[in-house]
Amino acid sequence: MSRCGHLRRGSVGRMEGAEERPGEATEAVFSIPHIVKGFTVPEGGQLALAGYLESWTEVNKFFDVLGPFLQFAARDVSAKVGILEKYLHGTNGEHYSTVQSMIIYERDNDLLTSSDRPSGARTLLRLHRALDYASEFVKELGNTSAENNFGRRVSEIYLSTLGRFNNKILAKTVSGLLLLLPPRKTMLQRRPTTHLRDPRPT
């Protein structure tokens, strides 16, 4: 992975560890190491669902401030995170403490393909597919060679990752919208950053 860093939210965000002045509004903190931790399977092999969802919430903040071009992704992620949080904090929440326990519980109770409610395991799979796109998008933001063709490269990334799992009409629409993205420099001005890091675990 590349260097650790934090994503810093312009006038309404601050770097982690920054001093807060009296009377200053509470601001969002974007910590890349924190994000990576939630996506990384620990030595014990059990990935905590709460940590995974917290990491996605942080990633989603980043996309939400980049303007309408990426808010479609933010809304989709919010919906999926909401489904999993409902299960995690519901009456059977003990079975959703880790990704592994969730899969076992839903498998043993025939919930993986139930038509009565969205499957937590399948919802997580869709989130994980989106993680490939999020990771590659952030890497492209840090790629100085993408300055003049940022929209085209991001559109290609979408088609090769998340777009492969969307229906053809949706994939064509989204890829076309991404072609309209402003230059990389403009995107970075919307979201001032320090060291960008690939959010996927190694």
Name its key features.
single chain, 202 residues, mainly alpha, three-stranded mixed β-sheet, 8 helices, 3 strands, disordered C terminus
Description:
By secondary structure, the protein is mainly α. Helices cover 52% and strands 4% of the residues. It is built from 8 helices and 3 strands; from the N terminus they run E-E-E-H-H-H-H-H-H-H-H. It has helices spanning 32-39, 49-64, 68-88, 99-108, 120-141, 150-160, 168-178, 184-190, and strands spanning 6-7, 13-14, 28-31. The protein has a 3-stranded mixed beta sheet. The longest helix has 22 residues, at 120-141. Mean pLDDT is 77; it is low at 1-29 and 192-202.
SSE layout:
Elements: E1 6-7, E2 13-14, E3 28-31, H1 32-39, H2 49-64, H3 68-88, H4 99-108, H5 120-141, H6 150-160, H7 168-178, H8 184-190
Parallel strand pairs: 2-3
Antiparallel strand pairs: 1-3
Count of DSSP-assigned helices: 8
Strand content: under 5%
Could you estimate the helical fraction of the residues in percent? 40-55%
Shape: globular
Distance between the termini: 7 Å
Mean pLDDT: 77
Largest pleated sheet: 3 strands, mixed
Biggest sheet strand order reads 1-3-2
- Residue stretches low in confidence (pLDDT < 50, at least 5 long) are 1-29, 192-202
SSE string: EEEHHHHHHHH
Rg over C-alpha atoms, rounded to the nearest angstrom: 18 Å
Which structural class do the helices and strands define? Answer: mainly alpha
Count of distinct strands: 3
